[in-house]
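Researcher: Re-running this chain for the archive, since the previous output was lost when a drive failed. Same request as before.
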Amino acid sequence: MHNSNSGSGKRRCIAEINVVPYVDVMLVLLVIFMVTTPLITQGVKVDLPTASTQPLTKEEEAPVVVTVDAKGSMYLSISTESNSEITAELLLAEVEAAIIRNPKRQVIVRGDKNVNYDYVVQVMSLLQKAGVASVGLETNEVNAS
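Model: Regenerated structure tokens:
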């Protein structure tokens, strides 16, 4: 009886994974992430006023933040496009829905210090119409130097 495998003798198959292509792919992804990360901006750029206040405690749910920039444009943090300007009617509807879901959710207004005070008052009036019991104003911390 002749075994067909007996001719191969001591030859064994060596299984190795060539990792060079994987390293190349990872380096390309790393470069892509390093380039795109600075392009991602969080929120709208506003110049906040300074005041000596205590920071808010952390809640289970993130607060609703309404931003008013120097031109008087409004932005809403819980909106699907939080970096896009929002109309007064849409702001009223979305905040009202958020307050109905969670009446204890905090609402904060981030008003640019160079904006006309009337714009901030209009936003606070809209929030009152939406059923918000109290509104916080976001400020920068005063430097103690």
